[in-house]
Amino acid sequence: MATAVITAPPQLEQQKHAKQQVVDRIPARIKHIQFGIFSNDDVVSQATLEVSDRNVYDLAPANAGNQRVHTSNGPMDPRMGTTSKNTFCSTCGEAPEKCNGHFGHIKLALPAFHVGYLKHIIEILNCICKDCSRVMLPEDERRRYLHRMRRPGLDTLEKTKHAKSILEACRKMKDCPYCGGLNGTVRKVAGHPLKIIHNRYDAFMRSTAKNKSPPPGKVEFDKSLMTIKAALPDVDKHLKKAVDDMHPLRVLNLFKRISPEDCELLSMIPEDARPEMLIWQYLPVPPVALRPSVMQEAGATEDDVTNKIGDICQISSIIRAGLARGYPLQILMEQWDFLQLQIAMYINSDAPGLKQQGLQKTMRGFCQRLKGKGGRFRQNLSGKRVDFSGRTVIGPDPNLSIEEVAVPERVAKNLTYPEKVTRYNFEKLKRLVRHGPFRYPGANNIIKRSSGYTTLLQVIARKDPNGTRLKEHAEKLQIGDIVERHLEDGDIVLFNRQPSLHKLSILSHRAKVRPWRTFRLNECVCNPYNADFDGDEMNLHVPQTEEARTEATELMGVKYNLATPKNGTPIIAAIQDFITAAFLMSSKSNFFDRKTFCYICNFMFKGEGAYNPDTGKYEPIEIPPPAILKPQAMWTGKQVFNVLMRPNQNSRVLVNLDAASKQFQKPSDPREPGDANIDDSLLVIRNSEVMCGPMDKATVGDGKKDSVFYVIMRDYGPDHAVQAMNRLARLSARWLTNKGFSLGISDVTPGDRLNQRKQLLIDEAYAKCDKLIRDFKDGKLVRDAGCDEEQTMENRIGGILSAVRQAAGKICFDELSRWNAPLLMARCGSKGSDINVSQMVASVGQQMIGGARVADGFQHRTLPHFPKAARQPASKGFVSNSFFSGLTPSEFIFHAMSGREGLVDTAVKTAETGYMSRRLMKSLEDLSAMYDKTVQNSSGTVVQFTYGVDNLDPVDMEGKAQPVNFDRTFLDAVTTTWDNEEATLSPEAIRTYTQKWLDKERAKLTRYKLDGVTLLDYADKSNMAVDEHESLRDYIDTVQAFLFKKAKLLETTLQRHGLSLPVETPKKRTKEAANTYGILDGIAKISQTTLSRFLELCWNKYKRSEVQPGHAVGAIGAQSIGEPGTQMTLKTFHFAGVAGMSITQGVPRIKEIINASTTISTPVIACELSNKINEDAARVVKARVEKTYLRDVILYVEDVWHPNGAYIEMRIDWEAIKTLFVDVTPHEMKAAILTHKPLKWGKAGADVLVHGSRIRIEVPDTTNDPKRAGTKSAKTQKEYFERVQQVKQLLPDVVIKGYPDCQRAIIKKDTKPNDQGEYECQLLVEGYGLKACMTTPGIEGYKTTSNSVMEVKQELGIEAARATIIREIGSVMGSMDIDPRHMQLLADVMTFKGEVYGITRHGLQRSRDSVLQLASFEKTPDHLFEAAAKGKIDSIDGVSECIIMGQPVKLGTGAMKVYRPLNLESGDVGKKPTFFEEGWDALLVEG
């Protein structure tokens, strides 16, 4: 049971500072929750009656209204409340809406164990003496532990640790230090839910000593069993198993004698929870409201709980009567057991062992009501159903702004916003009230300021067809009233699509009320929601207060979430048709006359001109000068994008960008910039003018930081980016409508040449496969590393056939028309890829199932259509036909098999990743950046001293995990500040100015020793000099290095052209100088203005990208890792550069890492070799690591018989030893044979003789044992023969060299030569044994890594484990492009306690002490029972706790507090008199 401590607001006079509030009357706030257990007095005092009758209704017939009367003192007594609408509570007289009901109680005839506290009861019994009830610790130890438990400020985790050590110390004590009584172990009987036994003489019974003497008490215990021995002789053989039965009555009496000090040692608070409270004597009966009757046609059906209360009442009364009348003990014990089982079902119907007891149908106990997805915690406390929400199907509308959402009028009439009447909106709201609820725009309700009453306009409008009463109410409207008006254009709404995998799944839009029945949104915003229009539905929520609207706009607004916090790349950008249209429009073959160009430009605007977010006005559109002047003025398609980016000269948007398009290939000559590419595939923009290049997925789509919209957003703010996107959406939709873009059968019809080339390709691949199969059958196939011949063949065939589809895709690109629709979409990246085109037109390709070709479903073949043992491509899943030509039946089934695998994989993956995301979120939810730049959890524990080392926010990273993209920023600085009259600075002047500018910032970063006093040199890199400014110092150095590099380029350019700059840079340049330095300017000019601008940009961008205090870095990190997990494949194996060694990847690998699993599916140790070049040296090292068996190095093994016995002889194959590079001697082999456990030589051992290359093992004949005198029987001879054969069979498996935990080692040879032109080798070891591998001669220990986090922790420590977690998650999710800061935070959460804790309930338990957070995750009842027994306090700091308690979360905007001085003088605040002080003074005066 939990008690809430409520703190009222402190009196202002008693405080120097008080938090400034928005409202006048501050509501009381729950400060913390203390959990405890009700004592018997508490149970009885809170109850309104004792439930003693099992009958729900009186046995008398129903009254006149056919209503049956509830039995007095029965389970449904009206004094415990009521659930029917027209009756009132008999206790408080209130209706069911106001009365929650009242508790009752059952007085039990005998005490019973509480199933929830059974574990705690057994723990306490193990700690105390079963005779005197004292805690079994010697006095000095007892005092020491008591001192620890009483230490102030002891947190729950430390308390639990101390309690554990007390339990262990008590378990070791066999004799009580106070009464000398013997104590054994106390445990639960296996298979029984509630029976506890005390095995007092356990140690004596298990002892194997010859002369053991029975302990005191054992003799009396045996005597007490004599009676039953005499009555039942069969019992005699079971008497050794006789134990003490610790029944509830005995345990209760023991617990009552425990002193308060001993309670503290048992980590219980004597005032709140004494041990005897863990046992039921009085059972609370919950109010009727918790267990309402279900009314049906036949009558009322009672709740499971009500029926169980009746059962418990009846059994208790039977036992009470039996005790009074003296029933036989056996019957009473059975009844008592049954009573305990019924109470256990009442509390927890899933308790282990209840099902075996043959109880009736299962019911939902109280534990079942709390736990699981549908329980109180997750269903009703952590998440709730809400008002003011709507849901319908979604559709696209490119005419909307990306910030808008079209809301159907029908929805707008139902969802209201409470607007307060002011003098500014008085007339508007009067008009809305006159319209009423059924006419849009109108109002649904009025809340009067004076009385607080709500007027329902719906009721009035139904009875008022003329609207006169509505007019009356409109006239009576006063300032200060609240009108709940219909949703109108411009209202802030929250739009959400489930599953909500990351914070961008719920964004704030502005409503646009439209007709029809669907929500509509701009297609650019589909990406964050992962929405499409094939029937998806979305939810809309209307915030109800001005604060909520403000927060929704500022934090969740679409324009502030254009980039994803996963890595800072744009997520809201052009998609699909928009990209196709932009690509076609920006083609270099598009030319328009003035009329057409203006017409196209007008597509982008709504006839109002171009909106300028800086001025908030619509301004005229200025068209650029034509690209071709004669014979006719012509504008290009690219110039449309100039207007799109910068519609007129007033706009400050000057985009400067060099970006590779999707089809761009780097020129072979590194000096070539690529802008003169014949394919026109490099986009070059200068001051918002497109010089060359197309608009495609890479330049206007999502996922690239070199895109046009991203550059506008970063350099000119999100408002300008939103305007540009809106223009593109309108342009694309209208232009494609006019131009047309469709896909027909002609688009997928291959030409004759394409068919010929495809057939040639397939024939060639088949020929290669046939050759491989022949080589395999003839035994000529050279094996790949770590593979046998068959695996090698399969790997190579798989490689050949997979390449066919890729090659066919390239053929399609070459052969199909450039206007081919599927090809065009694949080329610009709007949808599909060359493989999709290839499958439609050329060949579907190899069907892979589980990463391999189709397995044999029939005997030695895939289908009966093929010959046995056929390994040809067609028989193992290769589909040579295309979807156009149609698949044969066998190809169709292979394709269906592959498709089935994909469907199953998706379904399984969804569940796996969903649970993974939930665990990540629960573990990281309360981490936030603080004002001191540390990352802390809700209890104030520091998890990171600086977020991600440099305190930068991933969403603001312009480069790859870097805050500034220097090349683009420099280009922008040069282009925007270009002036022909301004001369370039000299290289020396650039260096001097840069140094001077940056040194001003360096001067602010003074370096102190760790003591914070001793001043150190700025460049000091020693351990004692490390501080929180390291990353900023590194950044300053990076900026300097970049500019020095540019100065060097200027220097070399001057030298190459034989030019020299004047000593002093002139303020203005002459025309002659401009001509002289023209080439130089084009290559490397850096003017004073450019340099200053670049340095300012770099500094401002860095400062702007710092993490805001209060930012929920943990939740963002969890989403950034969890959301991409849904796109990962489930069962993937990545070959670690070697065909034979696969490493688990995808979701299973992520699970292994975050679970901190000790055993992983594919442990691999990557060993760096001392000699990387020589392959023979690598083989020698491999032989030291890998297990070499005796069978690998012997020619034969044979058993030789002679009259006196037999021996086994082997010959060593020295050639094999030489080939395997094994460094082993015959004597080492002898030692290995003698120590090989499966041979079971025993103490005597075996006689192993070594003669040169031969090893002889004498097998001892146990039948010659002198103790077994007599002639040899046939049986013993047979035993000896079998022993010899067993030894002969086991000998080849003896390990003579290598590490036991190493499964195998493979040498991986690089496919590319290093700088010296040599191929390097690396050793990959499959298995464990990092320490052994690191210390092996020939292996560089410092550079050896393992992918097993727990093994690294064990061998190298916690920092190495943290680095391994970061590296492993990075390698698995490498293709997902997640910012390393998120992975660092996850690794820190797993390791910040000094141990590796998994992101599981066990890890969470060890690192968090909040009861509510743990209870809302998993094992809800267990955490609540433990919290109650230990009297835990939850201070409601974390996210889960605040949500459950309905309090503002202390992150983000809730992290900030405002204090104000009260300006009180010294005499303003004085001591307040106590309540009776004045009366006392009066009495004194009278006296």
UniProtKB/TrEMBL annotation:
Gene3D superfamilies recorded: 1.10.132.30, 1.10.150.390, 2.40.40.20, 6.10.250.2940, 6.20.50.80, RNA polymerase ii (3.30.1490.180), RNA polymerase II, clamp domain (4.10.860.120), RNA polymerase Rpb1, domain 3 (1.10.274.100)
One GO process term, biological-process aspect: DNA-templated transcription
GO terms for MF: DNA binding; DNA-directed RNA polymerase activity; metal ion binding
Subcellular localization: Nucleus
EC number(s) per entry: 2.7.7.6
Reaction equations catalysed: RNA(n) + a ribonucleoside 5'-triphosphate = RNA(n+1) + diphosphate
GO CC annotation terms, alphabetical: DNA-directed RNA polymerase complex; nucleus
UniProt keyword list: DNA-directed RNA polymerase, Magnesium, Metal-binding, Nucleotidyltransferase, Nucleus, Transcription, Transferase, Zinc
Record's keyword annotation contains Transcription: yes
Enzyme class: transferase
Main localization (coarse): nucleus
All copies of domain RNA polymerase N-terminal, residue ranges: 276-586
Pfam families reported in the protein's UniProt record: RNA_pol_Rpb1_1, RNA_pol_Rpb1_2, RNA_pol_Rpb1_3, RNA_pol_Rpb1_4, RNA_pol_Rpb1_5
UniProt family annotation: Belongs to the RNA polymerase beta' chain family.
Subunit structure comment from the entry: Component of the RNA polymerase III (Pol III) complex consisting of 17 subunits.
Record's function text: DNA-dependent RNA polymerase catalyzes the transcription of DNA into RNA using the four ribonucleoside triphosphates as substrates.
Annotated protein name in UniProt: DNA-directed RNA polymerase subunit
Lineage: Eukaryota, Fungi, Dikarya, Ascomycota, Pezizomycotina
